[in-house]
Design brief:
Layout (H helix, E strand, L loop, with lengths): L9 H26 L1 E8 L7 H14 L4 E5 L7 H4 L8 E2 L5 E2 L1 E2 L5 E4 L15 H14 L5 E7 L6 H9 L5 E6 L3 H16 L4 E12 L6 E2 L7 H8 L3 E7 L1 H8 L4 H4 L4 H17 L1
Parallel strand pairs: 1-7, 1-8, 2-6, 2-7, 8-9, 9-11
Antiparallel strand pairs: 3-4, 5-6, 9-10
The structure holds adenosine-5'-triphosphate and magnesium ion.
């Protein structure tokens, strides 16, 4: 407990103690909430637009389709995209009388909480300062009624910024992180930085996923290599972290994500669908 310095007024001391009490209560609530969840996994990348949200959404779909209870926290404060990808953008988060948040129920009973649900309209921008992001994430972790879950997946924004650090600091027993990259040097080097950051913060990287490993030509269905650079294999060797798998660019997937469709359920036999299943198999093996 921090000391109240001499010379501090009674009101200031009272406010400080109150703030300390609120913080301790919040941390206790987070601990209680997180205890009910078996695996808590963040999805990171040093780079924007490589497919973190795509990976998060499809991991959730695949795991839920195998009977696991899954929840998602979309902690991308500047570009929340999970609600659109899972077709629940019209829904809103409800609150109980004691101010707990009831997450939105998505397809396959996936429980979703996203900053998107709190925005007045989908195109409005919010100016988020660092401390506000931290307290909002803590509020989500402390007050969302996820209940018992097998998996809680946290979709993070690009980079090694506030959100990743806040997650690591707020969830003591984080299972680990999954790093997403593309087969380009620019992406691999940015992702290498975020892996280094996570390792320095003492968090385990469970595996690497290479996205956009090639392009599936519509109609023909053939796979073409598009990017020639360093990819998942390079990162895997450099950090001695398993490569969970590589997924191609599939125009059908992008279309499905824009309309909230469950591509890997509806197109189980697509290359993307098959590769994604292998990724989940590898992840489950690692977690055993
Ligand atoms: N393998 C893929 N095949 C086709 N489209 C893809 C693939 N991966 C991602 N996309 C599309 O590319 C866009 C960017 O992907 P996504 O939003 O998942 O990236 P992100 O890393 O979460 O981005 P941000 O850094 O902005 O959060 C989306 O429109 C998504 O549908
Ligand atoms: Mg994203």
């Amino acid at each position: 407990m921090s000391r109240i310095k001499p010379g501090v007024s009674k009101e200031e001391a009272k406010a400080k103690l109150q703030a300390l009490f609120t913080m301790q209560t919040k941390h206790k609530q987070i601990e209680e909430n997180m205890k009910k969840i078996k695996y808590k996994i963040g999805v990171i990348s040093g780079k924007g637009g490589v497919g973190k949200s795509t990976v998060t959404a499809n991991l959730a779909i695949e795991l839920a389709s195998r009977g696991y209870k899954v929840g998602i926290i979309d902690s991308d404060f500047h570009g929340p995209s999970i609600p659109k990808m899972l077709g629940v953008e019209d829904k809103r988060v409800m609150a109980t009388r004691d101010k707990k948040m009831i997450p939105v129920k998505g397809p396959l009973d996936i429980k979703i909480i996203s900053i998107y649900f709190f925005l007045p309209d989908p195109t409005s921008a919010v100016i988020w300062r660092g401390p506000l992001k931290k307290s909002f994430l803590e509020e989500i972790l402390a007050s969302t009624l996820f209940g018992e879950l097998d998996f809680l997946l946290v979709d993070l924004p690009p980079g090694t910024g506030d959100e990743a650090l806040n997650l690591i600091q707020s969830v003591n027993d984080l299972t680990g992180l999954i790093a997403v990259t593309q087969p380009t040097d620019v992406s691999a080097l940015a992702v290498a930085k975020s892996i280094d950051f996570a390792q320095k913060a003492g968090v385990k990287i469970l595996g690497i996923i290479e996205n956009m490993s090639g392009f599936i030509c519509p109609g023909e269905g053939k796979l073409y290599k598009v990017f020639p650079g360093k990819g998942g294999e390079w990162l895997s060797k450099m950090f001695n972290i398993p490569l969970l798998g590589s997924i191609p660019i599939d125009p059908g997937l992008a279309e499905a994500e824009d309309s909230g469709g469950l591509y890997i359920i509806e197109h189980k036999d697509s290359i993307f669908g098959r590769e994604f299943k292998k990724i989940v198999d590898s992840l489950l093996r690692i977690l055993k």
